[in-house]
Amino acid sequence: MSWTVADAVDYKGFPADRSKTGGWVPAALILGIEICERLSTMGIAVNLVTYLVGVMHLPSSTSANVVTDFMGTSFLLCLLGGFLADSFLGRYKTIAIFAAIQTLGTGALAIATKLPQLRPPPCHASASHTCKPANGFQMGILYVALYLIALGTGGLKSSVSGFGTDQFDDKDEKEKAQMTYFFNRFFFFISTGTLTAVTVLVYLQDEVGRSWSYGICSVSMFVAILIFLSGTKRYRYKKSIGSPIVQIFQVIVAAINKRKMELPYSVELLYEDTPEAQRIHHTDQFQFLDKAAIVAEGDFERNVVSAPNPWKLCSVTKVEEVKMMVGLLPVWATTIIFWTTYAQMITFSVEQASTMERSIGGFLIPAGSLTVFFVAAILITLAVYDRLIMPLWKKLKGKPGFTNLQRIAIGLVLSTLGMAVAALAEKKRLAVARTVGATTITLPISVFMLIPQFFLVGAGEAFIYTGQLDFFITQSPKGMKTMSTGLFLTTLSLGFFVSSFLVSVVKKVTGSNDGQGWLADNINHGRLDCFYGLLAVLGVINFALYLVFAVWYKPKNPKPALQMETIVNGSSAENKC
């Protein structure tokens, strides 16, 4: 019937009434959760390293690893949140539960930064005096708070945008147009939350107190939850359809169990139960997986007319879907290094800023607020690309912008240049530190010297983020769009973890017992420029590998490319996490 939405139900489980459910009002209630999540996560991440070094008295390398492990875990747990939402809880319950978890985490962090018993006594390190670092109990409480926040972030990022799109019927032209405007607002709220975090929230942390700042985050999320719950009767709900991760494991398990069996001489003998219109034709890639479609005794239950056990027998289409996902992995692997570079922007670059001259008149810019140039670079790059580069490229080449693989390549190049520039800037900073004395608290060199590295990596993110999202969405099978977003998120997660691994290795290889080396306990005594140079070299090697894999890759189902404006404002944003 026209007054109901075909694939949605209301809070009682009845077909959703179009006039009483969904639309702008419920979608707006959901956006409050998103802005509070950005406020909390980014407000903590961009300024956490200064707290760990200055208050908890941890070495700079250890502090950087705490931040990157926290961010990496946040993105990795997004896979868990997506799995729970797809298979068990649904998006509404997932949002409510994980928002509450994040509220508890930010509240716990506010308490951990307030109580003097949960941090070491204050002191100022010098050449002859080393401050006492936080003990195991103090760090344990801090870790509990941080990873509660990471768990909450993972659950929220997996469902907020998707639940927002559930409020619009894409089969109705009027609501489909409204959905486009929803994505405009969604990206605006992400940007607003991030900008507020790196400016207002970071300033409050440095000038008023971290406990007040984190307390504001906790209270804000609590209010957002109440607002979100108030719309329960107005939301449209989609039934859980299961996680594609399960399908991937089913194909792998079935193929392994039948590894000793021979493939039939004709692919027509492989099992297929997918409707003709939805079938994916068999390919010769990764033939080992084809064994999951071999019909064997015991695959069907006796005397029962039903589908086979999916852990024993999979259709050719399901196998081909998994093959398509496997084919994305080489490009996937070569984009991880970008997010390793990105991790330096919220760790060592912030620590660099904390040692430099940051005054404008009588106002002292918080070190963590330098990331505002990073966010600005993203927004400026998106605007320039959409308004200038795309029309020019279309006029010259007849194509509406760069392909997804080209955008990824541009992002990798810009991030590598960013690390090379960062190495040169750090070399200059260290020269000043040696001239005036490495123990000088504020070096006589302007913090604005760091802007080029923030801008280059930020511009790189604008290209690689949209390129990756476009690539994984358009090149993944229709039934695995959620999984394609998961692949994208794992590049972020692994990028942070690779950063932690590199920092640990470099610290061990170049360090000494007195806390010196490339990544010294005090960065004024270290050679951070060499570490940045190492990342630039790794970026060049990675880019060469990327070019090989990009040339090797053959698009399975070519579709119109999703350009930056579409991803930011249009239909693909529902796959953003």
From TrEMBL:
Single GO molecular function: transmembrane transporter activity
Keywords attached to this entry: Membrane, Transmembrane, Transmembrane helix
Principal subcellular localisation of the protein: membrane
A single GO cellular-component term on record: membrane
Compartments, as annotated in UniProt: Membrane
Transmembrane segments: 70-89, 96-116, 136-156, 186-205, 211-229, 325-343, 363-385, 405-425, 445-465, 486-506, 531-553
Membrane topology qualifier: Multi-pass membrane protein
Name of the protein described by the UniProt record: Protein NRT1/ PTR FAMILY 6.2-like
